[in-house]
Amino acid sequence: MALVNECFLSLPGNYLFSEINKKVNTFSLQHPDAKLIRMGIGDVTKPLAKAVIDAMHQAVVEMSDAKTFRGYGPEQGYRFLIEKIIEIDFRSRGVTVQPEEVFISDGCKSDMGNIGGLFAKENVVAVTDPVYPVYVDSNVMDGRGGGTSASGMWKNIVYLPCIKENDFIPALPEKPVDIIYLCFPNNPTGTTLTKPELKKWVDYALETGALILFDAAYEAFIAEEDVPHSIFEIEGAENCAIEFRSFSKTAGFTGIRCGYTVVPKKVAARTGTGKKIFLNALWNRRQTTKFNGVSYITQRAAEAVYSDEGMRQCKENIAYYMKNAAIVRDGLKHMGLEAFGGINAPYIWFKTPENIDSWTFFDRMLKEIHVIGTPGVGFGPSGEGCLRLTAFGSREDTVAAMERFQSWSI
Ligand code: PLP
Questions:
Q1: Are 24 and 144 in the same domain?
Q2: 14 CA to centre of ligand 1 in angstroms
Q3: Counted domains in the chain
Q4: What CATH code is carried by the domain that includes residue 397?
């Protein structure tokens, strides 16, 4: 009989959102008339931009004719999309990226989960806390968790608290680490780092030889000037960082699936004997073996995101969500709650009154005002006493949710 990878068995059985769904389903069965407002899971609600739909239709027409039909494509992605990414996401910000450094994928989650396959079990991984759960769970699957302590934290993972007391700016690790996950604008806290703050991390990585895995899935939501859209805007980052991007929230592709990863040619790790290994070649080897590439139709859709019309339409949707974010943030603050984020990211993070724990407050919100949030502690121990609300709902639901908050005697 085959032996399983026992690292999987050490993961907690319930993924955060399954636990939430279970509670919500039980409540719905008992209260079928309750009109629930879902501000928990971070999925978009607006349909795809017309420019994207038109491009997909056109690509389908091409697929129906032998002269323009496409079969297997390059695993790394089509040049037409890669060129657009380089021009609009990077060159326009003064960043040089080469076509061979861009890998198109079916999304950021897959790449952030799969990248761990390039690294040895012995690496010490650091994550900000609270954190998007994929970073921690995928490292545990790869054997880098080291078992949990009584507090539920993984013994071999270094947690870097991002809390109100440090303005959600993580401090540099106190002990040596090899791989650092950074996500800015941040899910779940909705907060960001300025260029000088991110520079500290790049300088630290260059000094210590650590690798930064930078998740920029929410860069399109940045509104403030001094917030970097890419880690490669910081000098030297091309020597120490890999960046992950997604069309999911930028352009409503959560159902279509497309993202990309930039692995600069200069970024390296080492073997046990100290030999330098460039990660671009390693990732290329991994992708060409284990990944089939993204469909032609999807890549044409992603290309259309960069057309004038596509950019205008996607920006309109982002502006709509960010107006929701402002309504939520202002609404919570008006009630005297401490709320963060929602300016450069579609998430609002708030502290519960009187330090009520996250799950108790989640239950009360569900039962008393029928609004669903996400308990902060589900993202890590530093999230205890907080909840996350998303701005991805309709305007009507967002306004109605805030009205329920206002008339609620907590
Ligand atoms: N990274 C972060 C921080 C996210 O919040 C999400 C989705 O919620 C993703 C990545 C996933 O992106 P994708 O849909 O491209 O897999």
A1: no
A2: 19
A3: 2
A4: 3.90.1150.10
Task: State whether 32 and 163 are in the same domain.
Answer: no
Atom of ligand 1 nearest to the CA of 253: 14
Ligand 1 center–CA 57 separation, angstroms: 26
Of 306, 335, 369, at which residue does a domain stop? 306
Same domain as 241, residue 146: yes
Ligand 1 atom at minimal distance to the Cα of residue 247: 15
Tell me the best of 128, 184, 248 to mutate to test the pocket of ligand 1, counting ligand atoms within 8 Å of each CB and taking the most.
248
Per-residue pLDDT of 357-396, as tens digits, reads 999 999 999 999 999 999 999 999 999 999 999 999 999 9
Q: Output the pLDDT for position 36.
A: 97
Same structural domain, 331 and 385: yes
Q: What is the 3-class SS of the chain, one letter each residue?
A: CCCCCHHHHHCCCCCHHHHHHHHHHHHHHHCCCCCCEECCCCCCCCCCCHHHHHHHHHHHHHHCCCCCCCCCCCCCCCHHHHHHHHHHHHHHHCCCCCHHHEEEECCHHHHHHHHHHHCCCCCCEEEEECCCHHHHHHHHHCCCCCCECCCCCECCEEEEECCHHHCCCCCCCCCCCCEEEEECCCCCCCCCCCHHHHHHHHHHHHHHCCEEEEECCCHHHCCCCCCCCCHHHCCCHHHCEEEEEECHHHHCCCCCCCEEEECCCCCEEECCCCCEEEHHHHHHHHHHHHCCCCCHHHHHHHHHHCCHHHHHHHHHHHHHHHHHHHHHHHHHHHCCCCEEECCCCCEEEEECHHHCCHHHHHHHHHHHHCEECEEHHHHCHHHCCEEEEECCCCHHHHHHHHHHHHCCCC
Q: What is the per-residue pLDDT across 333-362, written as a single tens digit (0 to 9) for each? A: 999 999 999 999 999 999 999 999 999 999
Q: What is the pLDDT of residue 410?
A: 81
Tell how far the Cα of 203 is from the centroid of ligand 1, in angstroms: 26
Q: Which residues span the domain enclosing 25?
A: 14-47+310-406
Which of 287, 306, 325 represents a domain boundary (last residue)? 306
Site residues for ligand 1, CB cut-off 6 Å: 42, 107-109, 132, 183, 187, 215, 217, 246, 248, 254, 259
Residues 224 and 252 reside in one and the same domain: yes
The mean pLDDT value for 302-315 works out to 98
